[in-house]
Amino acid sequence: MILQEMQKAIGAYREVLRLVRRLPKDSRPYYAKYARENFVNYREIDSNDPNALQELLQRTYNHSLWVLKKYSVDQSAADRLKNICAD
Question: Which Pfam families does the UniProt record give (predicted)?
Fold first, then answer.
């Protein structure tokens, strides 16, 4: 179970970095660093809370949509991330 959750989190991080590549060139370093910092900060979630990872993934997806909208990037670019976060 823990391995599945870890793979899911890593998959979400990978998709976020792919989405960062769609942003304007000057904003990519900021959002790549932001994603990395958040991934590191939240790598240890409460294992007693079965919803903790799902809540983080949902927050990841929602924030990604917000950033894509801010830079007028088609939100369908986040469909793969949505699939990861919705499972």
Answer: Complex1_LYR
